[in-house]
Amino acid sequence: MRRREVIAFLSGALAAPYLVLAQERTKVARVGYLGPAPAASFAPRVEALRAGLRELGYVERRKLSFEFRWAEAAHQMPELAAELVRAGVDVIVVPSSLETAAALATTKTVPVVFAAHADPVGVGHVASLAQPGGNATGLTMLLTDITANQLEALKEALPNARRFGVLFAPTAPSHIPALKAAEAAAHSLGVELRMAPVRAEEDFDGAFANMVQGGVDGFMALATPLTFSRRALLAELALKHRLASVFGTKDNVRAGGLMSYAPDPNDLTRQAAAYIDKILKGAKPAELPVEQASRYELIINLRTAKALGLAIPPTLLARADEVIE
Q1: What is the average pLDDT score of the chain?
Q2: Which one of 5, 61, 169, 306 is CB 3.0 to 4.6 Å from 224, fit for a cystine?
Q3: In which domain, by residue range, is 44 found?
Q4: In total, how many domains does the chain have?
Q5: What's the whole-number mean pLDDT along residues 228-242?
Q6: Considering the entire predicted model, what is its pTM?
Q7: Does residue 304 share a domain with residue 172?
């Protein structure tokens, strides 16, 4: 081999490891986010996720980029999940059980991180909290437990109530076990439940009409992306029909609902960044335990109580984490 060729060969061989290292350092991780429209409603959660990733050293556009897909209806989610897979994302982040179901129906290989799943074991999205066993993991709020606590709070606010309505989404996998938990809690509280299924915003008027016809004293809205994104409308309808309410996010109470009992979804979403970080560094979702929410907040809106002519018992107010006056 000629001297010039030897020098060229050695230069290339010595440079190769550094070129590979440079490429690894400049690789931009791609994070897919699948959520329900309108996107603006979920802006605080997306910002919480971004903040969590920044705390872990991920600079957007330098170390990480996002691919967003927003579904106008539940039936669109599987195709939007497929778009994210085709786009080559490294991980898919979802806010709830509805999007988790769509992502898992689409891929068994791309990691899925749920930020606030209601019941991942109950609906079969993971094998167990300690050992998820598939390609999904994340954080859970255990809706079956929350449901009983929400009904108890509503009954305490309305001690003479005999019948409550339940707004739920037939398309949400986690609502099936939650409804069973609601029935058990209602039996122990001595109240009847009137179920009011809602699939889209257009169902709200009919659901409220049915609840009023059924003589409910108040209602519980099981948390879904729909009840979250249409929170102002729900608060308006509750006041219009003079119904006390308990919701699954404090955003619903700040929009005018009466009460909520739940963890902070923004905080859970920020914590989801740690799962993304571990997965991007090589961890397998199957081996990352699902984390349960550790803090639950009772929020009460006294302005709404006054508008309804309702006196909140002092014992309930004393337990509130936040009171809106």
Answers
A1: 91
A2: 169
A3: 8-141+265-292
A4: 2
A5: 95
A6: 0.82
A7: yes
